[in-house]
Design goal:
Strand order of the largest sheet: 2-3-1-4
Helix content: 25-40%
Radius of gyration: 14 Å
Oligomer: single chain
Number of helices: 3
Structural class: alpha+beta
Strand content: 25-35%
Order of helices and strands: EHEEHHE
Number of strands: 4
Largest sheet: 4 strands, antiparallel
Amino acid sequence: MGHRVVVCYGEPTDPAAFDEYYQQTHIPIAKQIPGLSEIVWGKCSSLDGSQPPYYAVAHMRFPTAEALQTALASEEMRRAGKDVANFATGGVTMFTQDER
């Protein structure tokens, strides 16, 4: 199935600035991470119309546990991680997940 890094972004102070920076700057940085097979993201909405807990969620997929571990130890991942502070004004939650 694969493995992924999931990044959940809280509501930013300036959503338009978040969107522009994320698409124009952060995604190109993240695409340099070794072993990354896919990156997808989207804005969140709740089923009942209430405020969702996250503004957006990104999924970075890796084909194997080994590829994920290599990516997590890479300079490119460190660079992407450091860049989060430049736009994620609403906070961020990150975790890994093995897909089943």
